[in-house]
Design the sequence.
């Protein structure tokens, strides 16, 4: 209707340019004006007609420009809505086909990179029950790289608030600590990856300083992260307990193959955890001095103390000889130390109640973010256990403490 109105008004303006001079001449003739007056009347009428037409055309041009802007804006909105719908459909389809948590994390990182193309995207994983960054998983060449420990474990506001945090520059008062620890000045968007009421980590997008993405782009990225979190929760529910190998004949616990299988599962999920190697102090003295039966009884008592003290979701196995392996899921070093210390005290109480010959145990603990491979995890925990035993036994030692002994 607006375009028809513009066209009609244009016709009227053109007509007025012709009609007004003729009207002026006609009026002059009616009143018997001489020839010069007729000419002047025609010129005056034409001038008035042109002036009126110019004013009308200016208004018409302004209205036409406004209509063009409105049309272009509406077209852009429709195109953006179509792009957004297509993006959401593509991501949902890909997430349904995702076979494990690692693939889902990879998809989420790529989705955020697509929505925020001018940024460097990574996953920041928090330490258990702490709003601090344990390690970073960067997106390189369209795929997630191996998790890398983050020095000094800086804080991230998205972990504690469970909401998106943006900062225009690294120096802003509301910027995250991990952003300020970087040498380069940059903008940042941190979107929490929530599993229920807790945070697994945050998707971090770094860009040029002062250049934050649009609100619409951030909203689309938040949606992608939330869809990824839902898929991860589904995959954790679908994944049953894993086991491998045959049980240990003395304790009935799984063996080393099951431990390695468990660790591979956890590494793929990117869930933070701790590994502990627990060993009976002076085990060889017990075996050689009291016989194999006494040594086996000691193994059984330690296994009983561990299974009765540790959490239901924790994994326990016998590695071999006097050594046991423990995997404490979603657990910090401080929490793991408290759990193993409680187990050590439980062993002493159990031996006293059963009137058994007293013996002690030592343990080494390592956090998952301190190592870059499965073998390194086990080696670090084992080395810490050996140093705890060498220092007198009957104690628990963290891997980073063992490095300073």
Sequence:
């Amino acid at each position: 209707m607006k375009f028809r109105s513009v066209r009609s008004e244009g016709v009227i303006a053109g007509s007025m340019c012709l009609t007004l001079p003729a009207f002026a001449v006609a009026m002059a003739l009616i009143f018997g004006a001489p020839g010069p007056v007729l000419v002047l009347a025609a010129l005056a009428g034409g001038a008035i007609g042109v002036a009126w037409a110019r004013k009308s055309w200016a208004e018409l041009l302004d209205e036409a420009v406004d209509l063009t802007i409105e049309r272009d804006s509406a077209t852009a909105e429709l195109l953006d809505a179509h792009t957004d719908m297509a993006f959401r459909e593509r991501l949902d389809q890909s997430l349904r086909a995702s076979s494990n948590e690692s693939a889902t994390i990879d998809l989420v990182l790529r989705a955020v990179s697509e929505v925020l193309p001018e940024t460097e995207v990574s996953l920041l994983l928090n330490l258990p029950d702490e709003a601090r960054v344990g390690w970073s998983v960067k997106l390189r060449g369209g795929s997630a790289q191996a998790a890398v420990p983050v020095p000094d474990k800086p804080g991230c506001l998205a972990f504690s608030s469970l909401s998106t945090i943006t900062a225009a520059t690294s120096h802003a008062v509301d910027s995250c600590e991990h952003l300020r620890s970087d040498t380069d000045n940059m903008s940042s968007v941190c979107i929490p990856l929530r599993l229920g009421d807790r945070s697994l980590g945050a998707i971090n997008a770094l860009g040029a300083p002062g250049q934050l993405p649009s609100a619409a782009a951030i909203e689309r990225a938040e949606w992608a992260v939330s869809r990824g979190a839902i898929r991860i929760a589904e995959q954790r529910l679908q994944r049953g307990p894993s086991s491998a190998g045959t049980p240990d004949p003395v304790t009935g616990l799984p063996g080393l193959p099951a431990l390695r299988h468990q660790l591979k599962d956890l590494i793929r999920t990117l869930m933070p955890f701790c590994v502990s190697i627990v060993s009976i102090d002076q085990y060889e003295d017990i075996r050689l001095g009291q016989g194999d039966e006494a040594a086996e009884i000691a193994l059984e008592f330690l296994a009983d103390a561990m299974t009765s003290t540790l959490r239901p979701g924790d994994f326990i196995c016998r590695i071999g000889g006097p050594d046991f392996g423990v995997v404490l899921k979603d657990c910090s070093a401080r929490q793991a130390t408290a759990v193993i210390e409680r187990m050590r005290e439980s062993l002493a109480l159990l031996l006293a109640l059963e009137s058994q010959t007293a013996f002690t145990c030592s343990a080494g603990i390592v956090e998952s973010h301190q190592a870059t491979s499965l073998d390194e995890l086990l080696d670090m925990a084992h080395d810490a256990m050996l140093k705890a035993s060498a220092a007198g036994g009957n104690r628990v030692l963290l891997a980073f403490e063992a490095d300073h002994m």
User: Anything to note?
Assistant: The longest strand covers residues 198-207. The mean pLDDT is 81.
